[in-house]
Specification:
Length: 158
């Protein structure tokens, strides 16, 4: 089971810290994978959800390739990662039911059906964690991504 911190958040949303290198490294250091939002603007990479906010080097991302789930926020970022390395796990989506990541996982939008390769995104925000297939917890998925990932890891059967 993969436990994925949403933008580095572990015990709740922190708008001022999320998607920063330091915050992401903290989540990784305590054992979580991390979903990060990445933009490519004029051949430079940036972290940030609604807009590019912190420049980041490709090497920093590559050094964490086994722990990052890179949400490409624009087409340029997607094309950049596609041309750079097949070792990174990246995807693009907006409001799709799911997006196929470059590593073959289904990044699954809240309240959509899950399968064995699915990552349940923000299930705690959408009541997906409470009951799934008449059981407590999330069933039949490869992982979960949340702002409250520590709580999910400790308290829910997945």
């Amino acid at each position: 089971m993969k436990y994925i911190s949403h933008r580095g958040n572990i015990d709740g949303k922190s708008i001022y810290l999320e998607n920063t290198q330091e915050y992401i490294d903290i989540a990784i250091s305590i054992g979580f994978d991390v979903e990060v939002d990445v933009w490519e603007i004029d051949s430079e990479l940036y972290l940030g959800h609604d807009e590019p906010s912190q420049q980041v080097q490709f090497g920093w991302l590559f050094d964490r390739k086994d722990k990052l789930w890179i949400h490409c926020k624009n087409l340029e970022a997607f094309l950049f990662f596609k041309s750079k390395s097949n070792e990174l796990n990246y995807f693009w989506h907006q409001n799709d039911d799911f997006a196929l990541t470059s590593k073959g996982y289904l990044w699954t939008y809240p309240n959509k059906p899950l399968g064995e390769y699915s990552i349940a995104v923000l299930p705690d925000m959408h009541n997906d964690v409470i009951i799934w297939n008449n059981k407590i917890g999330i069933q039949n998925c490869a992982g979960v991504c949340s702002d409250f990932i520590e709580n999910i890891r400790k308290n829910y059967h997945i």
